[in-house]
Amino acid sequence: MWDLRGPAQPRQQFSGHAMVVTGLAVSPDSSQLCTGSRDNTLLLWDVGTGQCMDRASISRNLVTHLCWVPQEPYVLQTSEDKTIRLWDSRGLQVAHVFPAKQHIQTYCEVSEDGHKCVSCSNGFGGEGCEATLWDLRQTRNRICEYKGHFQTVASCVFLPRALASMPIIATSSHDCKVKIWNQDTGACLFTLSLDGSGPLTSLAVGDTISLLCASFNKGIHLLRVERSRGLELQEVAAF
């Protein structure tokens, strides 16, 4: 852990996993850190002391991503065993397992209100390669699927409500494309091809009109949402 306004040395180090750390999530009050690894283990840490407070291990649960649910003690986790788990940080126990998908789940994100979550799948040739919207509060069932990528979908994010009249999400894929979707209907609203970028590995909301997208070949792409001719994405810079 680093202090952005402090010295160059790390402020805290959290050592406890036996293999590469593939997910981390900070609690809403910033007092706890949850980490996941390819060692099938989740660890819960005290941010202030760096001490491990709890650990949980499930066979074949190779963690791909973690996301803390806003204002709740729950952590959402995707896995190479094709499942999505909801963990209760109070004791680090599994609170719910969503219906298993047919492909590895690569990423997850929770909506700002904590009512829904979205996950995405690996795949090739259009098999798999989808994102899935889930109900997080009531039925915890699948709500909608977003299909149209032809390779692994590596990232999925909820976009700010100010961008459009309907709720929208964005996905990035190893097929070099970023897509914007109508969250409710599953319709693809726009596709941006970042030719020559190589696989797109992650996606993050920058501000109310921009996204950051990481790629294998060309670093980080700054994308801007344009609404002058409907809903469009444009690349404005690369780093």
UniProtKB/TrEMBL annotation:
PROSITE patterns, A to Z: WD_REPEATS_1, WD_REPEATS_2, WD_REPEATS_REGION
Record-linked Pfam families: WD40
WD repeat segments: 14-55, 63-88, 146-191
InterPro entries listed in its UniProt record: WD40/YVTN_repeat-like_dom_sf, WD40_PAC1, WD40_repeat_CS, WD40_repeat_dom_sf, WD40_rpt, WDR31
Segments passing through the bilayer: none
The keyword Amino-acid biosynthesis appears for this protein: no
Entry keyword set: Repeat, WD repeat
Record has Cell inner membrane as a keyword: no
Protein name: WD repeat-containing protein 31 isoform X3
Organism: Mustela putorius furo
